[in-house]
Write a structure and sequence with these properties.
2 domains, 8-stranded parallel barrel
Length: 273
């Protein structure tokens, strides 16, 4: 009989723990209504056919011209600069086997993006260009456990910026650091089935992220979930129970847009021409 009670207790506790662990912040951030007015151009409004590379100043200008919010990625270099680029390696975007975090500012500006005349921007350049015209969705790309230094440098750079922005990361440690030290900042957890999408993440971390199991600690103001996975159990349950502000990434097809609309999610999109 004791065994039956134990089984019943386990059957009740596991779902209860799951429900509690996926709970995001219960407080809607004051910037949510303004953030929700926009669709967000993924790495700017880039287009290889038009020789406009991702995360380039030209891609950000095009997004501004069309009135889109801008999603961008930040790496902290060993020299203390914030480089606007998605990958740590420059192989895919600048065709060279170098790590952006190890380069000096001068060296970073020596490698054109995608064989164009566009160069890797620094964060302060993008802030000067955007100047509060549209909201920014800033992704923190952590390297070698530098989540504290990266988050602190970003917040220092944003100290006098007057525009609207939100900060997101796949790294829950970065989100927790923001929660502890910059609680007023709108923060979000990026998630999805990352190994399935080609990310070499270990299975344990992939399981935790796709199931939103750090939400109860980091209390994100929003969840940004991979659109193809967004109907999976943990995100679907989080949506139903807690109705969080939700982004879906990356919407590249009409079908993706329909999924995001059904989810009531904000689109992070790429425009194809």
């Amino acid at each position: 009989m004791i065994a039956v009670y134990i089984l019943i207790a386990v059957a009740v506790l596991i779902p209860l723990c799951w429900v509690l662990m996926i709970k995001p912040s219960g407080r809607r951030h004051p910037l949510s209504p303004e953030i929700k007015k926009y669709r967000y151009a993924h790495r700017g409004l880039h287009n290889k056919g038009l020789s406009v590379p991702e995360n380039s100043m030209s891609a950000f200008r095009l997004a501004l011209e069309k009135g889109y919010g801008i999603e961008l990625d930040l790496h902290l270099t060993d020299h203390g600069s914030l480089a606007v680029i998605h990958d740590t390696s420059l192989k895919r975007t600048a065709y060279t086997e170098l790590d952006v975090t190890t380069l000096s500012d001068k060296e970073i500006k020596s490698y054109p993006l995608e064989a164009t005349t566009e160069l890797i921007p620094f964060f302060d350049e993008v802030l000067s260009l955007v100047s509060g015209k549209v909201p920014l969705l800033i992704e923190l790309k952590t390297d070698n456990d530098n989540y504290r230094q990266l988050a602190d440098k970003v917040m220092q750079t944003l100290k006098n910026y007057k525009g609207i922005y939100a900060i997101q990361s796949f790294d829950p440690r970065a989100i927790l650091h923001l929660k502890k030290h910059y609680p007023e900042v709108m923060r979000g957890q990026l998630a999805g089935f990352l190994r399935k999408s080609g990310d070499p993440l270990n299975r344990f971390l992939d399981f935790g992220l796709r199931n939103l199991l750090t939400n109860f600690i980091t209390k994100p103001h929003f969840v940004a979930y991979r659109v193809q996975d967004s109907r999976r159990p943990s995100m679907a349950l989080c949506r139903k129970l807690y109705r969080p502000l939700e982004f879906n990434w990356t919407c590249r097809k009409k079908a993706h847009g329909k999924i995001a609309a059904k989810n009531g999610a904000i689109q992070i999109f790429e425009e194809k021409k």
